[in-house]
Amino acid sequence: MKRVTVRDQIPEIYGKILEVGPELQKILGDTLAELVKLRVSYINGCAFCIDKHTADALERGESRQRLFLLAAWREAPAHFTDAEQAALELVDQVTRLGEHGVSEEAYAGAAEHFDERETAALILAAAHMNLLNRVAITTHLHPPRRRS
User: Fold this and answer.
1) Where exactly are the structural domains of the chain?
2) pTM score > 0.90 for this model?
């Protein structure tokens, strides 16, 4: 069955949702924002978003190795800064809320490295990417084939 294209059916709302990403990226910076988007997408299994944000991160100069290791970031601590690890832990727990909520340790770890505005941006970035993943997966939005 063909699924609805949300962007086409409700462009006035979908467009506003997409405007959130660049605003959060201004607060978090390109590197961390792309890591957050990609990590959430790995957890949710969103192929479209994994493809898009991997390509975006590579364009911005992220290393292929860090992108590969992001799926198992806890086992590769030397490849991620302490601040990135704290952000990824918070993002993982925000994405997996149904399992155990967000622990005090994860929240405190992020707060140790990020001010309140940046912490708020991390929470919103995770929630925003979760929303986009759910739309993409539900509507069967698939990545295009790339030559490279």
Assistant:
1) 19-138
2) yes
Q: What is the CATH number of domain 19-138?
A: 1.20.1290.10
Convert the pLDDT of each residue in 104-123 to its tens digit.
999 999 999 999 999 999 99
DSSP labels, the chain:
-PPP-HHHHSHHHHHHHHHHHHHHHHHH-HHHHHHHHHHHHHHHT-HHHHHHHHHHHHHTT--HHHHHHGGGGGG-GGGS-HHHHHHHHHHHHHHTHHHH---HHHHHHHHHHS-HHHHHHHHHHHHHHHHHHHHHHHTT--PPP---
The pLDDT tens digits for 15-39 are 999 999 999 999 999 999 999 999 9
